[in-house]
Amino acid sequence: MFCAFLLLPFLFTSALALVSAVDSSTLVSTATYTKAKGEGFTKAIIRGYEEACGIGGEVDPNFVASYKNARAAGYTDIDMYWFPCNGSGNKCKSYATQVEEIGATFSANSMKIGTIWIDLEKDAAICNNWNYGTAGNLAQAKSLIAAIKASGFNFGIYSSPGEWSTLFGSTSVVLDSS
User: Fold this and answer.
1) Is the N or C terminus of the chain more exposed, i.e. has fewer CB atoms within 10 Å?
2) Distance separating alpha carbons of residues 164 and 71, to the nearest angstrom
3) What is the phi/psi pair of residue 66, to 5°?
4) Residue 174 included in any domain
5) Would you indicate the residue range of the signal peptide (predicted)?
6) Closest CA to 52 of 25, 70, 29
7) What is the C-alpha to C-alpha distance for residues 45 and 1, in angstroms, rounded to an integer?
8) What is the pLDDT along the chain (178 residues), one digit of tens a residue?
9) What gap in Å lies between CA 52 and CA 84, rounded to an integer?
10) Partners of residue 118 on adjacent β-strands
């Protein structure tokens, strides 16, 4: 799947700027990235880690190849998103281990990633993640945030108001105010 979205807003001094980005969760060829770049997309965001609940989470098998293809197409502004493995019925690796696997992949492949976007969304059909109830989900999310903060990587949260209220019971829940 190859889709486009806008990251809104990035604040630069006192002006707002829109960044057109491509988001991929499957292998993307250099030709496709080149076409997207030619159409004005300046950032690539690649799924770097998938929940893979049967094995506790894994670096996406297409991550490194898609990253290399994006670089070959001329992208220098590349982020990734992390779809963490969790759920009470899954034997997931710890969040710290998941982050370590991401970092090891960056190092082994000399990858320059700007931001790790943590994808917070319920997947009841496949892995039944985020099934701890709203209070338990909040505790899990805070643990996840602690693990990524400890790594020193830049991170952000990717979610929607609907997902947020499903996971945490309200759209006003704050995971981290730093």
Assistant:
1) C
2) 33
3) -65, -40
4) no
5) 1-17
6) 25
7) 12
8) 444 444 434 434 434 567 788 888 999 999 999 999 999 999 999 999 999 989 999 999 999 999 999 999 999 999 999 999 999 999 999 999 999 999 999 999 999 999 999 999 998 788 999 999 999 999 999 999 999 999 999 999 999 999 999 999 999 999 988 7
9) 9
10) 82, 157
User: What does the alpha-carbon distance between residue 11 and residue 2 come to, in Å, rounded to a whole number?
Assistant: 26
Annotated active-site positions, please?
23, 119, 121
Q: Which domain holds residue 111?
A: 2-168
Q: Residue by residue, what is the 3-state secondary structure of the chain?
A: CEEEEEEEEEEECCEEEEEEEEEECCCCCHHHHHHHHHCCCCEEEEEEEECCCCCCCEECCCHHHHHHHHHHCCCCCEEEEECCCCCCCCCCCCHHHHHHHHHHHHHHCCCCCCCEEEECCCCCCCCCCCCCHHHHHHHHHHHHHHHHHHHCCCEEEECCHHHHHHHHCCCCCCCCCC
Residue 114 forms part of a structural domain = yes
Domains in the chain, number: 1
Q: Are strands 43-50 and 15-24 parallel, antiparallel or unpaired?
A: parallel
Decide if 178 is inside a domain. no
Domain-located, residue 72: yes
Token pair recorded at residue 123: 């997947």
Residue whose token pair is 């090891």: 104
Residue 65, CA atoms < 13 Å, CB-side half-sphere: 9
